[in-house]
Hints:
This protein is of the alpha/beta class and about 250 residues long. It has one domain: Acetylglutamate kinase-like (Carbamate kinase, 3-Layer(aba) Sandwich). Helix content is about 35%, strand content about 15%. It has helices at about 15, 25-40, 55, 70-95, 105-110, 110-125, 150-160, 195-200, 215-225, and strands at about 5-10, 45-50, 100-105, 130-135, 165-170, 175, 190, 235-240. It has a six-stranded parallel sheet with strand order 3-4-2-1-5-8, sandwiched between helices. The longest helix has 24 residues, at about 70-95. The protein starts with 6 loop residues before the first strand and ends in a 16-residue tail after the last strand.
Amino acid sequence: MSVNTKLMVVKLGSSSLTGGDGRLRPEKVGAYVDQMAGLAREGCRIILVTSGAVAAGFGRLGYAQRPKAIADKQACAAVGQSLLMEEYARQFARYDLPCGQLLLTQDDFSDRRRYKNVFNALTTLLSRGAVPIINENDSVAVEELKIGDNDTLSAQVAAMMHADLLALLTDVDGLYTANPAKDPQARHIDVVEEITEEIAQAAGGAGTERGTDRPGRGWRGHRAGHRRHEDQDQGRVPGHQRRGGGGDLFLQGA
């Protein structure tokens, strides 16, 4: 991360926050919070876009594993969202950092009045030293109001707030020409200068079954017409388990 980064949008996917059983792992949440708190001490403002509500809720509702039916996932998200926020609040409290929750749908970006309300809420939270924590409102969003995934949501938030940096944590260490878990010939793409059709097609699906976001949709989001600030950087960084269960991505210069 550049020392000049003033506002950073971080996207954390389910695979970065869960264990092999698909359940939320508090130690992983804590490891990422440790790094975000370190950035906050250096003067960087953080907006967090996070998945994990279903992962936090399905066990509490008695499911043995993550459900697949939409109604079941919506119920799990309804229960899990409060549990997810409780965990984030507990972790950020170790650094005396308040955090606030915003649950959004596509209407919040397409309706001008709601767009301004979201912008004003985020601006106020940041000005008061809080960490806004954003997720899609999966419990109530119908198909036509769904944003789609948190890669796209984080890109829209970064464009809205004119963020200096958008960091997308994934279950692979960047963008490849194909899924490296399935294709040994897949090549790593270090820098994307232009979002071409070939780049969009290379994105593929989630690297693990726990992942809920498709590794290419954030790129497609910009290509589809999301406004991107001319000085904004975007990067895909690995969310692999390392120190304390989280990736050292921020400290290594994401």
